[in-house]
Amino acid sequence: MQAPRPPEVHSITGAGESLSQEQTGRTKRYLVSMTIRTACVLLAIVVPGWPRWVFLAGAVALPYLAVVAANAGRSRAGTPPPAPVITTSRMLPAGPAAADPRI
């Protein structure tokens, strides 16, 4: 007598990331960006010379980049759905109004 086969497991690899997981990832990326920005602000206060300007530029540019990255829409996995098939239109037969000369 043979041993029973294990049940078949189906994979849904084409399914996208859940909305809550996607939002959690975006929140983490935003917080990391804001942490780096805070470090740039503090370093711009402490560090003298030309590096101060680099840290100031990072402190100014990072909020914009972080917001753009956080507001980026959900990424679409896989290929887009196929385009609808457009067929040539057919001529319809003339209706009763075309046959009536009074109209």
Strand count, sense and barrel status of the largest sheet are:
none
Order of helices and strands: HHH
Strand content: under 5%
Tell me, rounded to a whole number, the average pLDDT.
Answer: 77
End-to-end span in angstroms?
A: 85 Å
Report the structural category: mainly alpha
Instruction: Tell how many strands the DSSP assignment holds.
Output: 0
Structural shape:
flat
Tell me briefly what this model is.
The chain is an all-alpha fold and 103 residues long.
Characterise this structure.
By secondary structure, the chain is mainly α. The chain has a domain at 27-71. It has helices spanning 19-46, 50-71, 96-99. The N and C termini lie far apart (85 Å). The mean pLDDT is 77.
Provide key terms for this protein.
single chain; flat; 103 residues; 3 helices; mainly alpha
Write the layout of secondary structure elements.
Elements: H1 19-46, H2 50-71, H3 96-99
